[in-house]
Amino acid sequence: MADSQMNESKRGNFTSNIGFVLATAGSAVGLGNLWRFPYMTGTSGGGAFVLVYLLIMVIVGVSLLLVEFTVGRSGKANAVDSYRKISPKMVWVGYLGFFTAFIFLSYFSVVGGWTIHYAISSFTGLFKLAPDEMGGFFGNFIGNPIVPLIYHFLFMGATVYIIASGVEHGIEKWAKILMPALFIMMLILVIRSLTLPGALAGVGWYLKPDFSAINLSVIVAALGQVFFSLSVGMSGMVTYASYLKRKDNLPKTALQVSITDTAIALIAGFMIFPAIFAFGMEPGQGVGLLFITLPAIFSQMPLGALFSFIFFVLVFVAALTSAISILEMPVAFIIEKKNMARPKAALLVGGISFVMGIAVSFSFGIWGSFTIFGQNIFGLFDYFGSNISLPLGALGASIAVGWFWKKKGATDEITNGGELASVRGVANTWFFLVRYIIPVFIFLIFLSSIGLLAL
């Protein structure tokens, strides 16, 4: 027991439950909420997509988040070793997460860098442009071979700095600063958006589901968004949970994080869609929604430059909190397997991801004509992560807990060895879902998403 306690102290721990909730919510709250959720909603049927997303979040998302929490806290190690303690046959889940972290971090950092540029440009020339010139501004920026890399470097540098500072003084400290700031900025922007003339049309489109629009592609998109948003399937939550204390209530924490993440995504819709309808824009603008449509809207608002600056700082903060958790996953593995100092490990992973991000950035410019399976590098990374790696990782995690760990070990971890008797019923229901329902659902949707099954 003494050795175990000494090892936990060496690895670091979250000093408070609120620190863990904010850090984990920060991981979940990111580009998936403020960038990907609005454009996925806009291109996938509005209220219909939101309804399917909420159902999958309740049934699948919360359960999978709890899966990763139990694996991480039980293992008290990096993701690979945490899965190894359940079964050597399941270490591939941790290794898949390790590899995927580099994929996601590389393009998260590129897009995060774009937000820095747009925040600065809000006061240095962006609003000298007419609304119909915003697309050209965005295209010229991302197509430049040098300028986006500068902002990519700045974003990656901020991420590396926080991770290099450790669990308590880096991840937890900055989560307690960044998350409240994020909430305040979102509140300001929601109030402004909802008070625009014609905003209620956007609210109606956003909240009223068209049930005829619900089809397989919407379900697949919603499932991928849940994985992307909650960061499940990449083992980042396994790593975070490994820093938890044994007394923490895992079901309660998983519910808190899921509610926070879902609330932020829904609030992002109230922040964006009323403004889009108020100015007669189209909601299905895809990836360009954040960097073309919204700046065009801000340019027509009183004090538009100020609101634009607040918005892009908000997106930067959200992207940064997610990038922190992504970077921590491989860093924790390298520290424990190679006995490398945390700052060196953070620099190593950050450096490799930065180099990979150069290819991502070039895919919008000088390497724009280079495609693999019909997609540029950015599209390939996003497809692999969202449609292949995250579902496979989530499937592996549920199989590891439901079929290799078995019921007693998993439910004992959730109930803290029986001390939390009030959650015994929740634990039993959760285990049934994890063992029998969720793996089948994920597997069928996964086969469909890659074109091997028509449902």
Secondary structure layout:
Elements: H1 2-11, H2 17-28, H3 31-43, H4 47-75, H5 79-86, H6 91-121, H7 134-143, H8 147-164, H9 167-194, H10 199-207, H11 216-230, H12 236-241, H13 250-278, H14 293-298, H15 304-338, H16 342-362, H17 377-414, H18 424-449
Helix pairs in contact: 2-9, 2-13, 2-15, 3-11, 3-13, 3-15, 4-5, 4-11, 4-13, 4-17, 4-18, 5-6, 6-8, 6-15, 6-16, 6-17, 8-9, 8-15, 8-16, 9-13, 9-15, 10-13, 11-17, 11-18, 15-16, 17-18
What do these coordinates show?
This protein is mainly alpha-helical. The protein is 76% helix and 0% strand. Helix 2 crosses helix 9 and helix 9 packs antiparallel against helix 15. It is globular, with a radius of gyration of 21 Å.
Shape: globular
Residue share in helices? over 70%
Mean pLDDT: 86
End-to-end Cα distance:
51 Å
Which residue ranges are poorly predicted, with pLDDT under 50 across at least 5 consecutive positions?
1-9
